[in-house]
Design goal:
Helix content: 25-40%
Radius of gyration: 19 Å
Strand content: 15-25%
CATH class: Alpha Beta
Order of helices and strands: EHEHEHEHEHHEHEEHHEEHE
CATH architecture: 2-Layer Sandwich
Distance between the termini: 10 Å
Number of strands: 11
Bound molecules: iron/sulfur cluster
Strand order of the largest sheet: 2-3-4-5-6-7-9
Number of helices: 10
Number of domains: 1
Structural class: alpha/beta
Largest sheet: 7 strands, parallel
Oligomer: single chain
Amino acid sequence: MQQIYTYGQYLKDKFGSKVYKVGINISGFTCPNIDGTVAKGGCTFCENDSFSASTNQVQELKGFHLNLNSITNPYLDKQLQQLSLQFDAISKRQKQEYGAQKFIVYFQSFTNTYAPFETLKALYEKALSFPDVVGLSIGTRSDSITDETLSYLAELAKQHEIWIEFGIQSVYNATLEKINRGHDAANVKEWIIKSKQAGLNVCGHLIFGLPGENTTMMLETAKQAYEWGIDSVKYHPLYVVKRTALANEFTRGEFTPISEEEYLNVLMQAIKMKPQSVSVQRVTAGINNDSLLAPAWCRDKNTQIKNINKAFSPLGFKY
Ligand code: SF4
């Protein structure tokens, strides 16, 4: 049985031991698709509590939000403090539970390049100064990163492991409009290519089961993402969380979530056509609490992984 090339394996090969991602959620960060700069309300599936890092420190600066044009940031010290507190708490737990020795600080929630350059620089440098941190992973949108930030990250990448994670979701503009994404496919393509040219590592997020998409379209998205040069991929099924625009569409009968069977089928094919060098960071997603509205199969991660491995088995793969 051939093990699928995972991101964990990539890091282990590079750093000689397992590297743990420490998910960070800094208050004051938002998203141009939520604050009205690009759109209001965000992507139709986005309810940010559903993917926030598990900490309540972030409520501290409620109501304060940065953007690319913010002139000052009176809360930078507080944000740096939050970063330290979260890193200490999470890395300590990972050390105790798994014997973790090396870490990547993952700026996870919202849009983590959507702030004045000096703020980003201070946060990234602080994160890199923590003991046993080998690099950063920065989750963002392709319409929210400046050339200045990209050049700065390219400099950091000469000494550290620097990743940018872009939400690609779909290469079809009609789909991106339906989910209120706020940017088109050409924009993601442009910034992935620029990031690669700058020497950064890029992870692309893909969603299968977006409204109006069939298997052929989902696979076309995967194919183009590979062609743009992503180094790593996260595959997600689209699931419906309460208190989102998608939840309203689902309740009105306007959106049918992808079935597990269809998801497994598209995932298999997407992995079969993936270049071997592209590492896999995630093969599914879900949420095991009351906020999940549908589909039910996205509730239990262990069962999902078991079913994925069952489906992989005839192909000779395991995850
Ligand atoms: S880009 Fe991310 S944070 Fe912004 S609305 Fe979409 S899912 Fe939410």
